[in-house]
Write the structure tokens for this entry.
Amino acid sequence: MKTDLLDLKDAYRNFLEGNKPASRELCPSPEDLVLLVRSRMPRRDRSKIMNHTAKCSYCLQEVKTILDVTNKENKFILAMNDVLNSAVHEKPAQARPLAKRLSWNYVSVISAVVLLAAVATYSVLHFSSRSDFRRGPTANIQLVSPIDKAVSSGELRFIWEAVPKAKYYIIETFDATLDLIWRSESLTTNEFQSSPDILQKFRPNEKYFWRVTAVLEGGNKIKSRMSEFSIRK
Amino acid sequence: MPEQNYPEKLILDFSRYIVSRINSFEYQKYAIDQEDLLQSIYVRIYKIFKNSDKKRACSRLYINRIINSVVIDAIKKSRKETEIVNTLNHNMIAVHGHAYEKSKSQSYDLKQILLRSLNELKGSRRYVIDLYLSGLELDEIAQLQKWSKGKTNNLFYRGLKDLKKRLKKRGIFHEN
């Protein structure tokens, strides 16, 4: 008889299905399964649970679910950090009224510091001929198109505002769960027309997000915020 | 979608994902309201972002706690329901068991030979092959066992080689 991995998998799953325990009393508790996946378990206990899990289809399904959820959770936390950090840079926290925060003793000192800072800033902006002082490396990239709209497949053209001193740009597109769908090569212009093979990666009427990363001459990177788009049929 | 709503959308998408994974326990069968579950996860995650300061909210610990409790609750409920269904099934098998025995086919032979061959594999190789055949990917096995990908791949290919040898002895030829 000839067989391959798929047949073996079928046979093994068949065995697991046929050997489902009548009761879950001997199965490890859900708390233990969570600990197993989240790396907080002594090696000996882990081996014991893994031994059981490899032969119990119920526990296996539960472990797989916890694994999937944990992996998704990591991506979610990274994405939230990304979004919240960019929001913090763009919108500083609303200041409380000055009178509540300062006592009169400090007002004169702070006024002097503010005045000095204003003079220094004015000097730099006024006397420098370099325009990029007005938009330093911490500036954001402004996306121009597409922003929150559906475009027909032939018109998928990514456009954003050029960044001074940018060496090259990279476009990244993500699906609704923020999995990376496509990443461009290094681009030297501030627009990009999608080719048919790139368009194939996007399904019609589904939500996608895109952002641009500008790599500056010194190696610093600036990322734009994400913007939504979709492709019409 | 306005940009300001972006974190909310992220939370909603994440909550939907959790519900979809929990659905793998076939909750629909047991009439548990999907929308309620989604809403409760969404609200719990949303609250920590809304009420805490941003840095604390982003810490893994807070999200971990919520997700752990949601998943553990789901597993417990599912186990409880499975227990009831299993009792009914076992009663049915006790009544109609003879007919079931007769319907075993050629796949039964392969299953038995595979099990005997697997039993002869040793230690970690056996683990990896068992888990792989039961549907886990090699990456997932590495993550569970806290092994490197290299070690897991190595154990898998060595285990598979051993398994093929043993299957061959029993008249089953494995094709790549």
Notes: Residues 129-138 of chain A have pLDDT under 50 and may be disordered. The two ends of chain A are 49 Å apart (CA to CA). The CA atoms of residues 206 and 230 of chain A lie 6 Å apart. The first helix of chain A runs from residue 5 to 18.
